Structures are given as structure tokens and as C-alpha cells.
Automatic annotation (TrEMBL):
Signal peptide coordinates: 1-25
Keyword annotations: Membrane, Signal, Transmembrane, Transmembrane helix
Protein name stated in the entry: Tumor necrosis factor receptor superfamily member 12A
Transmembrane segments: 73-97
Species, as recorded: Electrophorus voltai
């Protein structure tokens, strides 16, 4: 096989690939990462609309977006820490009271 023939075949493959890619790009406009194509209006729609209207067609193509409720996480964490402090404090007080009572009864009998 000739070098020129090989070069022509490679150029033909590149041109055909570029042409096919251009046809696909014309059919499907490039939407950004958090957008999807609405075929009715042929426009890209932001995925944030799926939070308000979850039954919108094509919402399943969007990455899952959680509502930002950081205050809930902070509240749950703080209440958990507070509950742990109360439980350990009650246990500590209980142990100290038990030790004091057991020492008095031993001193009183002797």
C-alpha cells in the first residue's frame, strides 16, 4: 500500500467523522451539565425545575438534585450531641450518687 493512499484513506475517515458529528450536533443542541432538552420548545431547560415539578418529562435524565437543607442537618447533629451529653451526664450523676451513698452506709456501720 502506498503512503499517499493511506494518507487519503485517513483523511476520508476524518472528514466523514467530522461530517457525521456536525449532523448530530445540528439535531441535538448541546445542553449544559444541569440542563435537559425540551423537545416541545426545542430548548434547554435547567434541571432545577425538576424540584418544583418532579413529573416533568426528561427529568430522569438530570442528575439527582437534593434540596439544600443544611439547617436540618445542623439541627439533627446538635440535638444528637445534646442528647448524648444529657445521657452521659445523668449516668455520671447516678454513679457519683451511688458512690456517696455506699460510702456513708459503710462509715455508719463501723
Amino acid at each position: 500500500m502506498d503512503v499517499h493512499t493511506l494518507f487519503r484513506a485517513l483523511c476520508l475517515v476524518l472528514v466523514a467523522g467530522t461530517h457525521l458529528r456536525g449532523i448530530k450536533a445540528e439535531k441535538d443542541p448541546a445542553c449544559k451539565k444541569f440542563e435537559f432538552l425540551n423537545s416541545d420548545i426545542d430548548e434547554c431547560i435547567p434541571c432545577s425545575i425538576c424540584l418544583q415539578y418532579p413529573k416533568t418529562p426528561s427529568c430522569e435524565t438530570c442528575p439527582h438534585i437534593e434540596p439544600r437543607d443544611s439547617w436540618r442537618v445542623a439541627a439533627i447533629t446538635s440535638f444528637s450531641v445534646l442528647a448524648a451529653v444529657v445521657v452521659f451526664g445523668a449516668l455520671l450523676i447516678g454513679v457519683l450518687v451511688h458512690q456517696c451513698r455506699s460510702r456513708r452506709t459503710l462509715r455508719g456501720k463501723a
